[in-house]
Amino acid sequence: MKCGKKFAEQEILDAHTEKHKGDKPHKCRICPKQYHFRADLKRHMFVHNKKTNPYTCTTCGKGFSRKDHFKNHYLSHERKAALYDKKRNLRES
């Protein structure tokens, strides 16, 4: 299977090709999630450990184990606020 992506190093291409095989040998013991790579499973396990949520939303208090998930969540509050302001300004004009 080809997806059209190109890589400068054969090792990186080989790792990427593994994703297309469909085999996900690394299974979470807590939920049904499965991963191609052990590192992805290891990162996922932080979701199940409530003690490892260092990123807390100051708007709603929700905690996140991953910075990228926290950032996306926080931006959703900003988008909602901007949409609210836009609607309010339209009503006032």
UniProtKB/TrEMBL annotation:
It comes from the Eukaryota. Its main location: nucleus. InterPro entries: Znf_C2H2_sf (IPR036236), Znf_C2H2_type (IPR013087). GO terms for molecular function: DNA-binding transcription factor activity, RNA polymerase II-specific; zinc ion binding. Residues 1-25, 26-53, 55-82 form the C2H2-type domain. One of its GO terms (cellular component) is nucleus. The keyword Repressor does not apply. It holds the Pfam family zf-C2H2. It is found in: Nucleus. Keywords: Metal-binding, Nucleus, Repeat, Zinc, Zinc-finger. The keyword Metal-binding applies. PANTHER family: MYONEURIN, ZINC FINGER PROTEIN. This is C2H2-type domain-containing protein. It comes from Brassicogethes aeneus.
